[in-house]
Amino acid sequence: MQNNVNRRKLIILGVLLTLVTLGVGIGIQRKCAAQGGNDYESIELFTDVLSIVKKSYVEEVDTKKLIYGAINGMLASLDPHSSFMPPETYKEMKIETKGTFGGLGIEISIKDGILTVISPIEDTPAFKAGIKAGDQILKIDDKFTKDLSIMDAVKRMRGTKGTKVTLTIMREGFDKPKDFPLTRDIIQVKSVKFKTLDDGYAYVRIAQFQEKTDDDLEKALKTLSDENGGKLRGLVLDLRNDPGGLLDQAVRVAEHFVEEGKMIVYTEGREKDAKMKFVSRGGNKQDTYPIVVLINGGSASASEIVAGALQDHKRAVIMGTQSFGKGSVQTIIPLADNSGLRLTTARYFTPSGRSIQAKGIAPDITVERMELSSAEKKDSMHLREKDLENHFEDDKSKQEPAQEKKSEKLPAYKTDEQIKTDYQVLRALDLLKGWDILKKVMNNAG
């Protein structure tokens, strides 16, 4: 009997030492000391199971593999975003934040127990194949995703450039799941894209918040300002299908538009370190030109922080559809064996105290995505005065030389194939122009 007790103690001691090596043992020991026997009994139960598996399982098993599996299960029971990253996965995660990695180019989460696409990343295999935000991934190749952790799903979708993988997708409007064959590629995410839409009106797209997003945005805004005579009249900031990224970059992006000293975002959690406030600092502030921020169901996390801050401070009009609603903070904790822990430690709140979690950001003006081709067809069916037989010609237009009409400069956006079919961007541009016209009318009236 005494031998069994001693043996059990030795097993417990061995497992605790293993956990310490993995970087989590100290926290467990502290909890055991603080909370008494309950935690000790749970650890004892764990060591009993570990001992039985090691001794009686049909094949010999590796202890580290069992420990990794136990940690994975523990974190999976918490929330969809907490996870354990073995050394190889942790290394890939660090590479991903720099903007280059191998795979398909989609951000995923668990929603209602189903692996769900938060958003496809622009110009990636998934994006080009037509994968959309909200798509449910039922299978990766022949493996069903039910009960598959996010990290396992990511591991299955990542791979060498040129290799193939098939995602089985269910989407609203589909009668049955549909297979999407994809070829993996090196994903090089360009964080910031920009262009001039029309004289004085600029467009900036942030695809993901990476290490250099703030620097890239600053360069983009300067270039756009120079292109438009040193002054912008309005900006469309496109955060659609932006799955988020680095918190500090979201704060720095917001600082370009939020006055110094004003709150951008704050976090609340159990630990003291999880309670943080981020206030706009002095820096390269933009002029107070009007801004329209575009969001949709694929806008998550960092992009929701920026949209929420600009909305609360009345610095921008938010247009589009409801955002994803990922308002939790994940802390990345490196562990002793080069593995990593992604742990949810806090929740985000907008400056006015709104929680983003599971709610998202509601647009000020709801504008659904639509194809303009059908609208253009409808427009072409309308009968106009010029279509009537024997209609009067305008005397002035008759006198205008044909050459002058040909040389008339079209607004920049009318020559951009991508923009002119993007209904939400055109609505945003119309709003900015309308605001500009309204200001002039009000000034004249005054």
Keywords:
2-enoyl-CoA Hydratase, Chain A, domain 1; CtpA/B_N; alpha+beta; globular; 446 residues; 15 helices; Carboxyl-terminal processing protease
Give the name of the CATH superfamily of the largest domain: 2-enoyl-CoA Hydratase, Chain A, domain 1
* Main beta-sheet annotation: 6 strands, mixed
Q: From the 3D coordinates, which CATH architecture of the largest domain would you assign?
A: Alpha-Beta Complex
CATH topology call of the largest domain: 2-enoyl-CoA Hydratase, Chain A, domain 1
Give the overall shape: globular
The CATH class of the largest domain, by name, is: Alpha Beta
> How much helix, percentage-wise, in residues?
25-40%
Instruction: Domain count, please report it.
Output: 2
* Average of the residue pLDDT scores: 84
Number of helices: 15
In the predicted model, the low-confidence regions spanning at least 5 consecutive residues are 9-33, 377-383, 401-410
How many distinct beta strands?
A: 19
Q: How far is the first residue's CA from the last residue's CA?
A: 96 Å
User: Strand order within the widest sheet?
Assistant: 10-11-12-15-16-19
Structural class per helix/strand content? alpha+beta
Q: Compute the CA-based radius of gyration.
A: 28 Å
Proportion of strand residues: 15-25%
